[in-house]
Amino acid sequence: QVQLVESGGGSVQAGGSLRLSCEASGYTHSPGPMAWFRQPPGKQREGVAAIDSDGSTSYVDSVRGRFTISQDSAKTTLYLQMDSLKPEDTAMYYCAAAPWYFILQHPPNWNQFQYWGQGVLVTVSS
User: What is the pLDDT of residues 15-70, one digit of tens each?
Assistant: First the structure.
């Protein structure tokens, strides 16, 4: 069973940066696509960024150019580097993974991500 644990959340001022991490474990096969989701207060959860096992990435328009999703070489840790943060980026951020046999689409099929971390809170103040 895949387990995901996020870390790195916190509070920053607008224009600042923050880096989220997600430790993955429990894979019985090579990892498939992974992603970051977020859920602002009072709003629905949305996909933010995704990365496939071949390194290809996809971003929602609102974060493109500001956020960068990446993995370490062993693909045991997922990262989300967030730069030029805005108050509207305030949300609970969740790490997610898809089964190994899925291929990341462009734009992503966000529904294919089935494994979830517990979430970390990111607060951006103006």
Answer: 999 999 999 999 878 889 999 999 999 999 999 999 998 999 999 999 999 999 99
The dihedral over CA atoms of 61, 20, 106, 53, expressed in degrees to the nearest 10, equals 160
- What secondary structure, in 3-state letters, does 93-111 show? EEEEECCCCCCCCCCCCHH
- In 56-126, which ranges are E strands? 57-59, 67-71, 77-82, 91-97, 115-116, 120-125
Cis previous bond, 31, omega within 30: no
For the chain, how big is the Rg over CA atoms in Å? 14
Cα(98)–Cα(109) distance, integer angstroms: 10
Q: Are 5 and 22 in contact (CB under 8 A)?
A: yes
Longest CA span, the chain = 44
